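Retro notes (design track)

What went well: tokenization of the new backbones is finally stable.
What didn't: we kept losing track of which sequence belonged to which structure.
Fix going forward: every design gets posted as structure first, then sequence, in one message. First example under the new rule, 221 residues:
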């Protein structure tokens, strides 16, 4: 489950709930799983994985059975299955809402690009946002040239080449910030290299910016 998805107000699928859902899922899949493996699969520290596991046991979602050689088996209780189903529904609803809202904002931004005569576009940041953007770009008839992301340079993402900097893009009319992890830093680098009027930012990322962007346009809510 991606943890780079932006969280917004009441639409938020809380990060703690995401870890709980993953924990219930891995226990449901393998009752003999060790706490160290749980920690690795959840991507959290061993102590934190243990804390979440204890919480689930305390809530009555997971039952523990001691077996020989100081090992434990973990089982989902009926309440645990119910909670897993509830969290799964919440996660899916949040994901679909994110996709719809992101697509609406990026589509409006790209239509504005087309109206300005900006047809060669680059994204800045490999992310879920960029993935949705590739769909919007095709819908709006824009040419998505590449994705700027120094950490992933030399690879491909959604069929697009990933380059290290704006200079490596060749000729582009505008760059849309799609970095979720560090939009402020990416925005400032782009402004310094190509100027503010060629840098566009989706509404969902604007609160992270140090100041209003000069040519962001108005995206749909």
């Amino acid at each position: 489950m991606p943890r780079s998805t932006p969280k917004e107000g009441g639409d938020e699928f809380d990060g703690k709930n995401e870890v709980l859902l993953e924990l219930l899922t891995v226990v449901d899949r393998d009752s003999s799983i060790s706490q160290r493996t749980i920690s690795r699969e959840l991507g959290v520290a061993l102590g934190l994985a243990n804390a979440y596991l204890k919480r689930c046991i305390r809530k009555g979602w997971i039952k523990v059975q001691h077996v020989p050689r100081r090992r434990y088996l973990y089982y989902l209780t009926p309440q645990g299955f119910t909670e897993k189903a509830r969290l799964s529904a919440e996660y899916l609803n949040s994901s679909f809402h994110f996709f719809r809202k992101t697509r609406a904002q990026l589509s409006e931004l790209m239509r504005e690009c087309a109206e300005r005569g900006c047809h060669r576009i680059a994204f800045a940041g490999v992310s879920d946002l960029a993935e949705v953007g590739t769909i919007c770009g095709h819908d709006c008839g824009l040419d998505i040239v590449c994705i700027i992301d120094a950490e992933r340079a030399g690879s491909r993402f959604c069929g697009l080449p990933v380059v290290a900097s704006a200079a490596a893009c060749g000729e582009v009319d505008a760059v849309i910030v799609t970095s979720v992890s560090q939009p402020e830093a990416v925005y400032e680098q782009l402004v310094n290299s190509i100027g503010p009027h060629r840098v566009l930012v989706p509404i969902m990322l604007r609160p992270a910016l140090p100041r209003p962007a000069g040519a962001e346009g108005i995206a749909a809510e």
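Added context from the reviewer: Residues 78-116 form the longest helix (39 residues).
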